[in-house]
Design goal:
34% strand, 6-stranded mixed sheet, Metallo-beta-lactamase, Chain A, globular, alpha+beta
């Protein structure tokens, strides 16, 4: 799977386009549809994966909602289980704490997880915003420790990291 990061908006949100063959998935479509469309190119968009519904992560979502063939994966309409869409297989993991609707998407075959604002390099998402909850964040952090440490974590802002690095350097995960 090819993964391209697009930084969008005034909060420098990370949108990701995941490509396999002639199709793709878009993770957290920020607020710059033109940039996203350029990266998508001729690939067929099969789905949009939303790690949570904060404005900086969903600004361009409306551009995908008009396409009937695009499936939207978000907490309110998605169960915590494995999904296959086209050539993509991923697991939905509920990871509340930063927001009530925070979910992560784990691609076992590619050893990667899209975590939105749940985890950052050496930090975690804020819990003091509406819908945030420290106890839920602690529970989500415990849940994530059970995944293979060699996976790459694609964050909603800033740098990509690995679970191994976070287990060693992130004080919230110790």
């Amino acid at each position: 799977m090819e993964i391209e990061k697009i930084v969008t908006g005034m909060l420098d949100e990370n949108c990701y386009v995941l490509k396999k063959n002639d199709s793709c998935l878009v993770v957290d479509p920020g607020d710059d549809y033109a940039k996203i469309k350029d990266v998508v190119g001729d690939s067929k968009v099969l789905g949009v994966l939303l790690t949570h519904s904060h404005f900086d992560h969903i600004g361009a979502l409306r551009n995908f909602l008009t396409k009937r063939s695009v499936k939207i994966f978000k907490k309110s309409s998605t169960e915590e289980k494995e999904y296959t869409i086209g050539d993509f297989t991923f697991q939905v993991i509920y990871t509340p704490g930063h927001s009530k609707d925070s979910i992560s998407f784990y691609f076992d075959e590619d050893k990667c997880m899209f975590v939105g604002d749940f985890i950052f390099r050496e930090s975690i998402g804020r819990c003091d915003l509406p819908g945030g909850n420290e106890k839920e964040m602690k529970d989500s952090l415990e849940k994530i420790k059970k995944y293979p440490s060699d996976i790459t974590l694609y964050t909603g802002h800033d740098e990509v990291t690995t679970l191994a690095y976070e287990l060693e350097h992130n004080s919230y995960l110790r």
